[in-house]
Every structure is written in structure tokens, then in C-alpha cells.
């Protein structure tokens, strides 16, 4: 098949459209009256809510840490402080996403617009990875020196096993929650739900864009 | 109806083929296509005040239509949640069953199988846009357009003869 044949086929399709395509002016006018609620703007309220909830949670943790600092035990202060830090980073990424939402320009060239949108969507994967790092600290915040001092061997076996397991899982998830592992069974189990599909597709888009960018080098 | 809206609707009417071709290339399912058509028209209307008359209207429309179509990552079932209740179809084929052309239909299928950006590239090429125009819509250099297009055409031809 030659180029010209491809073009002729397309022209024949174009011809068919010219003959059969109908434009309903009233319906098109009705569409323009609809409230604009694109994919991006639909994301904004969810992100805003998450940022606000995150800020309240961080404030609560920080107030606890500050007020309990003189009297609180080190286990609680370190655990709560680290959980707060991880959540601050996550909220920071959500704020970055909100900024990106406001600067995405649908009028701009396709590659640059798609790169921004895909980057915005895939940064959610980063938030998930970072939030995993707080897991082990949820197993230590309630400990105290007095409790540990009087603990029996069974307590130590259980406590250390749980904390080590959570620490290992959090580091492993932080390293392995990435697009390259999308076909692994555990990944599909964790992120196989409907909500994660756009993130995986956005990542595919970034791969396509990278492919085009490498072509120019 | 305002003069601006009248003008906008005339622009859409004279370029309805672009909107339909983009929607049809990115959505196989009828309901998805209708939703995408609706969203493209809506986004064009939203962006219309920023349209500069010194810019070619069809190129501007292609850019927005492709941006909307490619970024439609969501599944069909989610679309209806994002958009408000569907308006009646604004652009549609009067009689889609009147004529069957195997090769033409095959070309549609093969284009839909391409990656999103490749699909945009071949659509613009088949619609007769020059390399600088394609580069302008997509944000690519002319040489990049030429190289990629050559590969996509080879890919299409190979599949056609397979």
C-alpha cells in the first residue's frame, strides 16, 4: 500500500462525513450553556478537600507534639513528628497539583499540555509512596519508657516483629510502587481498582512523550 | 443568542468534521463518542474568547479537540458523572449504515489501535496538514514529525497488508 492510497481512503471517509454529518445548532447551543466541569476542574474540589483535611491533621499532630514536648515521651514525640513530616510532604505535593491544575492550558500545543496533565495525575503515585513511609511509626507512637522497662519477652517479640514488618513493608512499598511494576500481581491487587486507571494511563502517556522527546535529541 | 455565540456555532458547523474525526478516532463506543463530542464543544466554547483571528481556526480547533480527547483518561462510566446530564447530540452521522467500505473502516480501526500521540499525528497528516502545521499543533519539530510519521505510516501499511 502506498501513501497515496492511505490518503485516498481518508478522503473517501472525509467525503462520507461531508455528505452525512449533521450539525444540530440548538443542541450545540445547549452544550455551551452547560457549566464547564472538565476532568481537571472536577479534580480541584477533591484536591482542595484533601489539602484542607491534611492541614487540619498536621496542625493537630503538631499541636500535640509541641504541647507534649516538655512532658511527652520520646516514642510518641518522634513517631508523631515523623507522621506529621510525611503528611506535610504529601500536602505539599497536593498543593503543587492544585497549582498545576490552574496553569494547564488547553490552547497550548498538545505535547506540553499532555505532559503537564500526565505529570499532575502521576504525582498521585508519589504521594502514595511517601505516605507509606509513615507505616512503622503507627506501631511505636503509643510506647513509653515505663512500659518498655517492665515489658516481658513476649511483648518484645510481638512489638519488634510488628514494627520490623511494618518498616520493611513501608520501605519495600516506597521503592516498588512504580509504573514499571504495573503488571505484577501485588500491584494489580493494590492499585487495580477503577480509581487508579487514570494514573496508569497518564504514566503511559509520559512514556509516549518521553519517546517523542528522545527522538529530537 | 449573542453575536459571539452565533459566530462560535458557525465556526463549529463549518469545522464539524474535525470534531467528529477526533472523537471517532479516540472513542469506539457510541456513547463515549457522544460524551467526547460534547466535551470538545464545551471546551472550545470556553476557550473561544482566547482564539486569535490571526490563527488558523481549524488548527486551533484541532489543538483543543486533541488535547481534550487525549486527556480523556477516564472510563465511559465515569464520564456521565463528570458531565451534567447529556444534551442531545450536536454532531452525528445521518445514516451510518448506508455504505460499507471495508478498507475505509479498516483504516479507522487501525488508527484507533495507535498510541494516542501517534493517532493525533496521523490524523493531522491524513487531513492534509503540512509538517510545520502539525508541529505547531502538537508542539514538535518538523524533523520529529517527519521521522515519527514515516514510522507510523509504515506501521499502518504493514497492518493493512497483513
From TrEMBL, chain A:
Residue ranges crossing the lipid bilayer per the database entry: 48-69, 75-96, 117-148, 154-175
Which domain of life, per UniProt? Answer: Bacteria
Q: What keywords would UniProt list here?
A: Membrane, Transmembrane, Transmembrane helix
Tell me the protein's name.
Uncharacterized protein
Give the species. Algoriphagus antarcticus
TrEMBL record, chain B:
GO MF annotations in UniProt: DNA binding; sigma factor activity
Entry keyword GTP-binding: no
Any single GO BP term: DNA-templated transcription initiation
Which N-terminal stretch is annotated as signal sequence?
none
The RNA polymerase sigma factor 70 region 4 type domain covers: 105-156
Stated family: Belongs to the sigma-70 factor family. ECF subfamily.
Tell me the protein's name. RNA polymerase sigma-70 factor (ECF subfamily)
Amino acid at each position: 500500500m502506498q501513501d497515496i492510497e492511505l490518503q485516498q481512503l481518508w478522503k473517501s471517509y472525509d467525503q462520507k462525513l461531508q455528505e452525512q454529518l449533521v450539525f444540530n445548532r440548538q443542541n450545540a447551543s445547549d452544550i455551551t450553556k452547560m457549566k464547564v466541569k472538565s476532568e481537571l476542574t472536577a479534580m480541584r474540589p477533591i484536591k482542595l478537600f484533601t489539602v484542607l483535611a491534611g492541614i487540619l491533621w498536621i496542625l493537630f499532630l503538631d499541636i500535640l507534639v509541641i504541647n507534649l514536648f516538655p512532658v511527652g515521651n520520646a516514642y510518641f514525640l518522634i513517631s508523631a513528628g515523623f507522621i506529621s513530616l510525611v503528611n506535610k510532604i504529601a500536602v505539599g505535593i497536593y498543593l503543587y497539583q492544585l497549582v498545576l491544575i490552574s496553569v494547564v492550558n488547553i490552547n497550548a500545543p498538545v505535547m506540553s499540555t499532555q505532559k503537564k496533565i500526565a505529570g499532575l495525575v502521576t504525582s498521585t503515585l508519589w504521594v502514595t509512596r511517601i505516605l507509606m513511609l509513615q507505616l512503622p511509626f503507627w506501631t511505636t507512637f503509643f510506647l513509653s519508657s515505663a512500659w518498655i522497662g517492665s515489658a516481658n519477652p513476649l511483648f518484645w517479640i510481638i512489638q519488634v516483629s510488628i514494627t520490623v514488618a511494618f518498616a520493611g513493608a513501608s520501605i519495600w512499598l516506597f521503592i516498588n510502587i512504580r509504573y514499571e511494576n504495573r503488571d505484577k500481581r501485588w500491584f494489580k491487587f493494590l492499585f487495580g481498582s477503577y480509581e487508579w486507571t487514570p494514573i496508569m494511563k497518564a504514566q503511559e502517556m509520559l512514556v509516549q512523550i518521553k519517546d517523542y522527546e528522545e527522538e529530537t535529541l | 443568542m449573542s453575536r459571539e455565540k452565533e459566530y462560535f456555532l458557525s465556526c463549529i458547523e463549518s469545522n464539524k468534521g474535525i470534531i467528529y474525526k477526533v472523537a471517532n478516532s479516540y472513542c469506539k463506543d457510541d456513547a463515549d463518542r457522544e460524551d467526547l463530542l460534547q466535551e470538545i464543544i464545551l471546551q472550545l466554547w470556553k476557550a473561544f474568547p482566547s482564539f486569535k483571528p490571526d490563527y488558523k481556526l481549524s488548527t486551533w480547533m484541532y489543538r483543543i479537540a486533541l488535547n481534550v480527547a487525549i486527556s480523556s483518561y477516564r472510563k465511559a462510566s465515569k464520564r456521565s458523572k463528570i458531565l451534567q446530564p447529556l444534551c442531545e447530540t450536536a454532531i452525528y452521522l445521518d445514516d451510518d449504515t448506508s455504505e460499507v467500505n471495508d478498507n475505509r473502516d479498516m483504516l479507522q480501526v487501525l488508527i484507533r489501535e495507535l498510541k494516542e500521540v501517534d493517532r493525533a499525528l496521523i490524523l493531522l497528516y491524513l487531513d492534509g496538514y503540512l509538517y510545520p502545521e502539525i508541529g505547531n499543533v502538537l508542539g514538535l519539530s518538523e524533523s520529529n514529525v517527519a521521522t515519527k510519521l514515516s514510522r507510523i505510516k509504515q506501521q499502518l501499511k504493514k497492518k493493512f497488508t497483513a
